[in-house]
Amino acid sequence: MKFFISADLEGTNGVVSPQDIIPGEAGYEAARVFMTEEVNAAIEGLFQEGADEITVCDSHEIAQNLRLDLLDERVSVISGATRLDSMVHSIDSTYDGLILLGHHAMFGTQNAVLDHTYDQYLIRELKLNGTAYGEVGINALYAAEQGVPLLMTSGDDALEKETKAYDPETLVAVVKHAQGRFCAKCLPRAESKSLITRTAKRAAETAKQHACMTVPEKLEMEVTFQQTCMADGAMRVTGTERKGPMTVSYECCTMKEYMEMRQVIFLAAAEFYDSRF
Description:
- By secondary structure, this protein is α/β, with parallel strands linked by helices.
- The chain has seven helices and twelve strands.
């Protein structure tokens, strides 16, 4: 069996504030170790259940967060941010399942640790066909288009609720319970790693029976930015339509196009962002 792990940082146990997720800040180096330990815990569970091949995709910020010197040497790693498919770059039909480790709830979720949708400075809401989606949902739909089911996520209890709304059969390892945006009650680290290993093992056990999410035939992306000027910038992308002061839309034919054009539209909008006002 072959599995794809996409590892984010905000949902990692012990990570609760911006200082934990931004390179150079006080908690970042420790958070990298916690992230790597949780990835190793999932790897162990997958191999216990007979995995033959595992790819780990570093998916936070510039995508160079994992401590490669501490990472299980049996896996391949995708590192670096210049890639078309974002957090699930290179996933294809040869994989038996997707696992999203250390993920988080979408922006605006109450009692969710470090809630955001791709970029906390840019994005207020991201919709697909009129329904708000977070990163878990978008990544799961992209994988589903390749024929790969979302088997497992890990993060806080808000992430569990969001995951189950997309797919009730997806397993979730809840490693911390949110007490606010920058506060959580975290499990003992040994307990959280054991939980992730057990959950990953169960995920591998059920991989062949787990159905993919249904990918809609119509794919309308609707992005609401944090500032009106960002929507002005996004309108430079051919094919975008203005839906409101801070909102633009774009019609896509596939989730691959959705993933790629999301990045193009975000980058166009980001050039107009000004943190001073």
